[in-house]
Amino acid sequence: MMEPTVSRKTYLLTWVALLALTLATTLIGFVDLGPFSMIIAVALAAAKASLIVLFFMHALYEFKLVRVIIAGGIIWFLIFVGLTLNDYLSRGWLSSSKHSQVTVTSARGKKPTSPRSILTRGETL
Amino acid sequence: MSDVATSEVSALELREQFRTPEQQRDTASIGMWVFLITELMLFGGLFVGFTVYRVSYPQAFDAGSADMNILLGSINTAVLICSSLTMALAIHGIQTGSEKLLALFLIATIILGAIFLGIKFTEYYLHYQDHKAPGVWFEAAGPYAQKMQLFFVYYFVMTGLHATHMIIGIGLLSAMIYRTMLGSFTARYHTPVVLAGLYWHFVDIVWVFLYAIFYISGLHAK
Fold first, then answer.
1. Where exactly are the structural domains of chain B?
2. What angle do CA A111, A117, A122 make, to 5 degrees?
3. Does the pLDDT value for residue A110 go beyond 60?
4. Given this model, what pLDDT does residue A82 score?
5. Of chain B residues 80-139, which have a CB less than 8 A from chain A?
6. Are the beta carbons of A60 and B27 closer than 8 angstroms?
7. CB spacing of A37 vs B208 below 8 angstroms
8. Is the pLDDT of residue A103 over 90?
9. Rounded Cα distance, B108 and B205, in Å
C-alpha cells in the first residue's frame, strides 16, 4: 500500500481541536463534579488521543492490519483495566453474608484477612 | 515484477528481503505499531496501578492533585500538542519533496520538546521546594497526608518515565535531522521519519492522559 498522505488543513484542524479540548478539560476541572471530574477528564483525554491516533498518526488512512493491531492493543488494555477494577471494586461486597465467612477461610486454617481491609480508609500504609 | 521495482529504487531505499517499496513500508509500519502497543502496556501497568489506588483513596489523591501547578501543566500540554503538529508538518514537508521543510519542522519539534522538559523539571524543582518529594523530603498536613505520598510516587514515576521517553524522542529526531543533512530522505523514501513521528505522537498521547489524571481532579479544591 502507498503511504497515506494527509493535507495540511486536516493537521491544522486537528491541532485546533486538540487545543480546544485541552482548554475544555482545564475549565471543567474548576467545577466540583465529585467523582465525575476524573471521568470527564479521562473521557476528554480519550477524545484527544483518538484525534492524535487517527489524524497525526494516520491510523484512519492505514491499511487494515495496522488498524487491527491498534484495536487489539486498546481492547487488551481495556480488559486489563476492566478485570482489575472488577476485582478491587467488588471486594467486600459479600463480607456481611454467611457465605463469605466460609469462602475466605484459608485452607491452612490461618485467620484470613478481611476482604474489606484493602479498601479501608485512614489506615497506615 | 520485483525486478522492475528494484531497478527503480536504490539499494538504500529497498532492502533485499523486500519485494517492493510498499511491502517494505508496510512491514516497517506494522513493526512500529506493535512496538507502540508494547509501550502502551508498559505505561498501562502504571495507569492501572494509579487507578486502583485512586479508587481506594479518592480524597487523598484529590488532595495531592490540588498541589499540582495547573498553569505549568496546561502550558506543557499545549507545548506538546504544538510539537505534534510540527512533527506532522515535517512529514508533510518531505512527502511534498522538501528536505528544507522537513529539517526546519524537526528542529521546531525538538525545541518544543526541550521547552516541555524544561518546564517539567521546573515543576519537579517546585515540588521539591514544596516538600512534596516522597522518600526524599515529604511534608503534608491534614487527614490524608500519608496517602498523598502514594499520589506523588505515581506522579514522579509516571511523569519521569514519560520524560525519559521525551529525551529518547529528542535523540531520535536529532538522528533524523542528521540523516536529512546527509540527504537520505526523499519524497519517495522517508519511512524512518514517519516511524520517529509515530513515536513522538505516542509520547504526546501518554502526556494527554497524565495531564488528565494528575492535574484536573484537585482543581476545584484550590
1. 27-221
2. 135
3. no
4. 95
5. 81-82, 84-85, 87-89, 92, 95
6. no
7. no
8. no
9. 19
Question: Which CATH architecture does the domain made up of B27-221 adopt?
Answer: Up-down Bundle (1.20)
Helix or strand holding residue B137 (H, E): strand B137-138
Beta bridge partners of B132: B138
Residues, chain B, total? 222
Contact A88 B198 (CB under 8 A): no
CA distance A122 to chain B (A): 7
pLDDT at A5 over 80: yes
Which of B44, B84, B95 is closest, CB to CB, to A52? B84
Burial class (CB in 10 A: 0-12, 13-18, 19+), B183: exposed
Name the one residue in this structure whose C-alpha cell is 505505561: B43
A62 touches chain B (CB under 8 A): yes
Tell me which DSSP letter residue B18 carries.
Answer: -
By Cβ distance, the residue of A41, A69, A121 closest to B33 is A69
What pLDDT sits at residue B9? Answer: 55
How big is the CA angle at B77 (ends B72 and B79), to the nearest 5 degrees? Answer: 90
Contact between B216 and A27 (Cβ < 8 Å): no
DSSP class of B133? E
pLDDT at A14 over 70: yes
